[in-house]
Structures are given as structure tokens and as C-alpha cells.
Amino acid sequence: MKKQIKLVNIIIVTIVSIITFFPLLWMFSNSFKSAESIIREPMKLAPEFFDLRNFRGVLEQAPFDLYIFNSIITSIAIVVLQMLTSILMGYGLSRFKFKGKKVLFGAILLTYMLPAAATYVPSYVILAKMNLIDTLTGIVISNAASVFAIYMIYQTFSSIPKELIEAAEMDGANNWQILWRVLVPVAKSTILTTALIQFVAMYNNYMWPSLITNSKKNYLISVGLNIFFNSRGNFTQNLPMLMAANAIAVLPLLILFLVLQKWFIKGISDNGIKG
Which residues, other chains included, contact 257 with Cβ-Cβ below 8 Å and sequence gap of 6+? Predict the structure, then answer.
């Protein structure tokens, strides 16, 4: 019976994996093809030969290297700020008792339920008064805190045994030392996993950056990619170049995941990130 259940699980995982990864494989495969070969054999994954003309054409027609650079720099800055604010908030909420703590935590979680579009107008007005419209700094500052990151780190800090903190206090550690020398190292997997999730989210963020940037030098990859798509006239004839542009945009995330996959999987298994 156990072998049958295991076999069923393997089959389900295999099917889900194929469904999940097929669009990605199809995209990379068609980025090396011509429009005629895609029309002739749309479901064929293996290209007849690896032709880099589509990639060269994309890079000649749009500064995708600049778009990717802007996205990586802003995403790193945003994630650093989010982790810093989340660590401090998570520590304060899990460690200290103060009046209105439950109300504050509830208010923080409540903001997570608000549609993102509800914050666009007030955020735009604030950035306009700070003269940060159409700047990468404006994108970074407006994403400096994350409710998701605060909640994840708060939950992890709350699950750390109190005996560990008490032992540090007996050794003479103050609150700052307890945070950075005890709690943060213990919660390292969660922090890195949350940082990776937030980096991917910020890298792929489109709507808000598209609203506050209007010059090519400040476009993120999501905005630049959309403009490139809309500038192509005949979709079918330009499909290989569109796939190549997508492949260029996705490549940094694939490299990042391959480098950090051990920490990502460890963070999920250690802390039980559930859907």
C-alpha cells in the first residue's frame, strides 16, 4: 500500500512539474528559433540550431542590460530595507510587552488585506512632494517595509525557545546583542528565504514602477519588457524576439535560485511556509 501511495505521489509530482516548467522550456526553445519554424512546429522544444540573432536583436533595439541593472539594484536595496525593518519590528513585537501591542499587530496585518491599488494615490502624492517621481530612489523608499516579511520574521522569533534568550541575558547580553547575536543567526534560514521571495516579487513588480517612472533610464525590466512588447507590430513574426526578451528578463532569477536553492528549501522546511 505504501509503495502504491509513493508511486501515485511521484506521478502527481511529475505531472505538476511538467505543467509548471513546460512554458519556461517552450519560451527558451522558441527564443532560438525563427518565426517560420515556430509556426511550422509550435510544440517542438528542441530548436534545429542555436541561433543567437534574436538575442542580439533584442539587445540592439532596447537597453535590456540597463533595465536588468535597475531592477537588480532597486530590488537589492528594497530587500535590505525590508529585512532591516522586519527584523526590528518582529523583534519588538515578539520580545516586548506594551500597551496596544495586539492592536498594532492587527493593524499591520490588516494593511496586508488592502488592495495594492488603494495605496497608489497617497503614495504617489507623498513621492511627488518629496520630488521622487521618476527616480529609482522613489521606488525603493515606497517599498521599504513589507507586511509579509514582518509576519514571517515575527513568527520565527516567537517560536525560538525562551531559554535561549534567558541564557543570553544571564551572560550579560543586552537587547541589541540578543537580537543580532542570538535571534538573527537562529532565524537565518527564514530571513534568507523571505529575502529571496521578496527579491523575486520586487524584480517582477510592474504596476507601481510603471506609474512613477516615465524615462527610459529609470525603467525596470518589467516596465521595459512591456514597452518592448507593445512596440512590436506583428506579434507572430516577432514572437522569437519576444521570447528572447523574456528569456533575458528571467535569466537573473534562474541564476539566483540555482545559487540560493539550498537556503530556500531549508527555510521552507525549517519554518513551514504554508500556502
Answer: 196, 264
pTM of the model: 0.86
Q: What is d(CA 257, CA 260) in angstroms, rounded to the nearest whole number? A: 5
Three cell numbers written together for 190? 527564514
Q: Are 33 and 51 in contact (CB under 8 A)?
A: yes
CATH of 64-231, one of 3.30.1340.30, 1.25.10.10, 2.40.240.50, 1.10.3720.10: 1.10.3720.10
CA distance 251 to 195: 18
Q: How many CB atoms neighbour CB 112 within 10 A? A: 11
218-228 burial by CB neighbour count: b if 16+ within 10 A, else e? bbbbbbbbeeb
Confidence of residue 19 (pLDDT cuts 50, 70, 90): confident
